[in-house]
Write a structure and sequence with these properties.
Layout: H1 3-30, H2 36-42, H3 49-59, H4 65-77, E1 83-84, E2 89-90, H5 91-97, H6 99-127, H7 132-146, H8 149-163, H9 185-222, H10 226-233, H11 238-249, H12 252-264, H13 270-275, H14 281-289, H15 298-326
Antiparallel strand pairs: 1-2
Length: 333
Amino acid sequence: MGLKGYIAKRLVYTAFLVWAIITVNFLIFTAMPGSPIEAYMSSLKGANPEAFKRLAEHYGLYKPPHEKYFLTLKNLLTLDFGYSERYRSSVLDVIIREPLPNTLILMGTAEVITIIIGMLLGVIVAYKRGGVLDTTLVTGSLLTYSVPIFFIGWLLITFFSLYLHLLPTGRAYPVEWIRNPPSTVFEYIIGRLYHMILPTITLIIFSVGGWILLTRACILETITEDYVVTARAKGLKERTVLYKHVLKNASLPLITNIALAFAGMIGGAMITETLFNYKGMGRLTYDAIFLTGGGSDIPLLQAIFYILALCTVVANFLADLLYGIIDPRVRYG
């Protein structure tokens, strides 16, 4: 089977997964006790009968189960998530207006830095396995990876914000911007970066240990292979051997985890964003689950779960395609 046939096969499999995601999404919210939409409407103050009627028509509240299912199928495939009475806007607009860009900026920055540092240190400690550096970094990685992320964030806030007064305790941007928005692009970038420092460091400290351990394990599996010995016998520099030969051939598990990491970042970091009052996808999910008046924002939650699952499927599809490009041992067949 050639590359085109392989891509066609993966596309069919991806389409099946999307259908399964929509079906599970439908079953989860249908199987909830009572009427989730009615519970959602009752939690909103000032909701009028027209609003309830609009939601009932969108979700087919009073239609037979099979009609309701096909209606859900159509809505999710067209990204029509309905209208959020809480935000007085379409659900898709609520997501892409502020939370999604904020999360992409924060999580994207943290993920890129974490992956680069973790992979580089992972290669180094695998090369120097058994030494002081290896023992220190492995122990430190296990320690930071096992500490709750809210505790790491709390320590950073206490030290840098409350004690030294160097960095803000939270928010995605200065509170003064609500009345006086930044006048220049430079001012905007500096303000956003200034408020991103603590949550970004929190995510890096929590996640980098996992990447160090994963990279180290992958490198140790391949560093003793015959082709590594041959490369060294040819007189290649050790750096070239490690990063061009060893890391490249040990990268399949890393590619999968990188793809899933970037897919998962769409969902945000609920604990970190809530701790730092950062208006991203994680904080949006938290607010949707725990509404002020009780209940949950069902339209918003359904959209968030679907988008996150969809991004995971797409990331896996891209990872499968990259396997054959990076590792010639993988064949499309």
